[in-house]
Amino acid sequence: MKPITRSLLSCCLVSTLAVGSLLSSNAWAQTTLRLAYASNSQPVKDALALFGKLVEEKTNGEVKVMYFPDSQLGGERELVELTQTGAVDITKVSGGLMESFSPIYGVFSMPYLFDSEQHFHQVMDDPKIMDGVYQSTKSLGFVGLTWYDSGQRSFYTKSKPIKTLDDLKGMKIRVMQSQTAIKMMELLGAAPVAMSQAEVYTSIQQGILDGAENNEFALTVARHAEVAKHYSMDTHTRIPDIVLISSQALAQLSDSERQAVFEAAQESTEFEKQAWKAAIEQAQQESREKFGVAFHDVDIAPFQQAVQPMYEELKTTPALYELYQQIRSAAQN
Predict the structure, then answer these.
(1) Residue 94 and residue 230 share a domain
(2) Does 232 share its domain with 296?
(3) Which of 18-22, 147-151, 195-199, 207-211 bottoms out in mean pLDDT, i.e. has the lowest?
């Protein structure tokens, strides 16, 4: 980016956030929380909108939420950094990205960690498991507020389905900028390519990538179904989205206002879980009927066996392995 363009962007960002600051100190001494997020599926957008509505209701209008949607203030990494400094009060990002801010989040990128959607929800709703994770970034200036379902991630490809490890061998597959995701792909025999989501469509179209891995919304919302016609249901990961709140934002709230914010966040999560499930079913149907995508079942046992070295390596990091054991114990219970 040219220096003058970068400067202009910075000025625009400062000006935009300044408006939020002015609004947060109006005549009624009303507090305005600035919530920014990148591009997202409709269930997530609806849940974040509900969160703001509930916050206002629960505080009798004393706290409002001001939105900066659809990457207005940058991508997810930039939004975490803005939350870290307090320039943004609340954001929602992938748990995969959070690994680079707090290693403990890397556990959620481990392949085949959860046995089912029920197991996943049980773990994420358990404060005994999640409170320590949320607080792991406190020294960085922000903490976790709640989580949203972002579905299960599987492979989608341009020219052939992935049903076996041999099908995947050597294929160039886009992954998130996560060391855990990269390691998983290497063990499965693919060639991982870390890049932003915005580049995936043209990269598949031009043959730079053979495919990618994501939930079904990538096919419809991002329209990747136009260039990738095979979706292989190996369901290798279930990575939660995490809603973050800055420590500065929490500090400016009264005890009752903080309680209202946390209650609103939890209620928005319950809404999002149901909305996500319904929307995913619709996305699958649209992918088949509108775009002609073929969905393929996969025997995951060989895939699970291939990534076992990752779990052996996890034992060398006690904090991560302890969280892993808590998650697995929840499945047994």
Answers:
(1) no
(2) yes
(3) 18-22
Top pLDDT among 18 and 321 is at: 321
- Report the mean per-residue pLDDT for the chain: 91
Handedness of CA 282, 283, 284, 290 (dihedral sign): positive
The number of folded domains in the chain is 2
Which pLDDT belongs to residue 179? 84
* CATH code where residue 49 lies: 3.40.190.170
With respect to residue 317, please indicate whether it lies within any of the assigned structural domains: yes
Give all strands of the β-sheet with 241-246 in edge-to-edge order: 63-68, 31-37, 90-94, 241-246, 142-148
* Contact call for residues 180 and 110 (beta carbons, < 8 A): yes
Q: What is the pLDDT of residue 198?
A: 85
d(CA 136, CA 142): 9
State the residue range of the domain holding 145. 22-98+120-150+241-279
Is 193 strand, coil or helix? strand
Give yes or no for a contact between 295 and 229, defined as CB atoms under 8 angstroms apart: no
> What does the angle CA 169 – CA 175 – CA 180 come to, to the nearest 5 degrees?
90
Q: What is the pLDDT of residue 135?
A: 98
Q: Is the pLDDT of residue 32 over 60?
A: yes
Q: Decide if 299 is inside a domain.
A: yes
Residue 63 lies in a domain: yes
Say how far apart CA 140 and CA 101 lie, in whole Å. 8
Same domain for 187 and 298?
A: yes
- pLDDT tens-digit readout, 145-189: 999 999 999 999 999 999 999 999 999 999 987 788 899 999 999
- CA nearest 188: which of 207, 214, 169? 169
Residue 294: CB atoms within 10 A of its CB come to 11
DSSP characters for 103-148? GGGGGGGSTT--SSHHHHHHHHT-HHHHHHHHHTTGGGTEEEEEEE
For position 333, what pLDDT does the model report? Answer: 75
Contact 111, 155 (CB under 8 A): no
What is the pTM for the complete model shown?
A: 0.86
Residues 163 and 206 in one domain: yes
